[in-house]
Structures
1.
Amino acid sequence: TRINTKVIGLVSKPVSHSKGPLLHNPTFRHVGYNWIYVPMLVIDLNEFFRVYSTPDFSAFSVGIPYKEAIIGLCVKVHPLAQRIGVVNTIVRSPNDGEMVGNNTDYLEALSGKLFVLVGAGRALAFGAKIKGARATIFNIDFDRAKLLARAVSDEALHFEDLRRPDYKLVFDGVYNPRKTRLLKEADGAIVVSGVKIARKFMRVMERF
């Protein structure tokens, strides 16, 4: 990299499937930013940040399975991210170099009269709640679904009870593959693929 290049790491396991570098790096070049987005397969989160908690990295994107565990390694956490219990973006403060955790996932949550969440995605559940939706949460781990439902004052149901009625819109946060099994089975509904969540990356860029 060139001198003074701002390095942003993607911390995840696995990481090879991520489209982040394909989205970020061309955008950085297009707008003339001397930045580079680097995917990093992290096996041990604590050891990684012991080694890489240097000014060489200006920021980190945080992927699965570390979005909850990373909170304990942040010196500061944005109040909303703290409430959600999930951090997906860490920016090093230019003033004191401390790592500050934030969350941008919830900004892409889809609101409506009823928000049916398959899985225990905290950012989406809180995003729906913030936008005034009523959420019903289904998860294979029912205890985890109940904990999330309790946090957002909504309802949890057993995963086995999930039957797709005539939903008007079906959204899948997964962007690779583009058309998931869920979207293929959502005949008759408006389907929104995880590719739409790429808009989130622009908000992540604003944090950097």
Note: The domain at 6-103 is CATH 3.40.50.10860 (Rossmann fold).
2.
Amino acid sequence: MGDYLIITECSSPSHFMAINASLFLSINVMLLFMESKYLVQHAAISTEIRGYIKNRIFLKKRVDLYKHPPRR
């Protein structure tokens, strides 16, 4: 998966997948940037979904893509 993780919503609110951050510019998906004060949202996301991410995916390596851009 690489050093950077992007969490994207799949077909339903209860299904998520992690994609490599290098795909960020080539894939048009809804993104959540983890480990950020701002929790940047590119779409409206319910509290339930945010709770799911925090409980299930937040345990994975978290990154802030604004502070730590992918290495070349």
Note: The chain has a mean pLDDT of 44.
3.
Amino acid sequence: MTRAKHTRRLRVAGIALLVVALVAGCTKSADKSPESLVKGLLDITDMPGEWQETQRDAFTSRTNENPSIDPSIWCPDASDEAAGLTELAGAAGADVEMQMQLDNAEAPRLMRLQAWRNESVREYFTRVVAVVNICDDAKWTEDPGVTQEMWKIDGPEVGDESVSWGSGLVPPKGKEMAASMGHTTVARIGDVIMVLQIGDYRTTPTSETLSDDEWREIVQRAADKLADA
């Protein structure tokens, strides 16, 4: 065999291997169906503490049982910017819900983790960031006298870009209602959106609530697992 022929064969073989690698990589990145995404969501073995899974679902249409993917009660000032977020999320996605009973709380801690992939994830994330900036340190009252508040949280920085915020609900004085406190992170991981929410109900002033450090740990675990799915 001449040196020229040998060189051509090596080039052809190299190109063939490159094509195979590219096809394999594209196949993996494109496999973000709801069924694939739900496998990338946290399960109880990934979670610190004694969590119980109450729902795990891959869906192609949204119902009352599936998340609307409008992940917060937005402040009134952001109503225009928040309009259309549900439509940008599309119809398909994956969802897992868990709860954990705390020693000094009458109601369990709740977690909802959602993910979806479509052509609007970048626009969705940009709109969410705009809404969170508008609602930072916002406080408003709704009937029947329930006060709600929302504030931006620094970090955790996960995925390609992410934004986090806290929210609270305080019942009017004299009403037998539980106050609530929640953390939410929305992250864009490539062409996938992840929404992670954890909430506590405070029935007494000493009721345990999730710390920011605990929150950051769970968010990091969720983003890492979804990125590897």
Note: Residues 1-30 form one domain.
4.
Amino acid sequence: MDTPTNSNETCTAEAAGCAHEDARKSHHSNKTKATLTARLNRIEGQIRGVKGMIEKDVYCDDVLNQISAIQSALNGVGKLLLEGHMKSCVIDRIQSGDHEVIDELLVTVNKLMK
């Protein structure tokens, strides 16, 4: 997630990747998109690697270790998105008087913690 590099920069909902609640669409900066895409491409490669390991009858423990690494990497992507969402979208909606965002956030956090 892009973070301010000096005191003159602010983190707005749009800059962090969140849009007005009616639009329900994110608008990530190019830097954020590149970071997320690179991470997801790496994860995609890991998944293809696990598929190949299974096809080659690699020892189960080795495959499971790779699956664990993939899950950890996905959690990292989720944390990045959640951080940006909380620092911008959630704060903006609370400041505009929309407190329903708290319930929405709790549902999302519960899903991430499964």
Note: Residues 30-113 form a domain with the Methane Monooxygenase Hydroxylase; Chain G, domain 1 fold (CATH 1.20.58.1000).
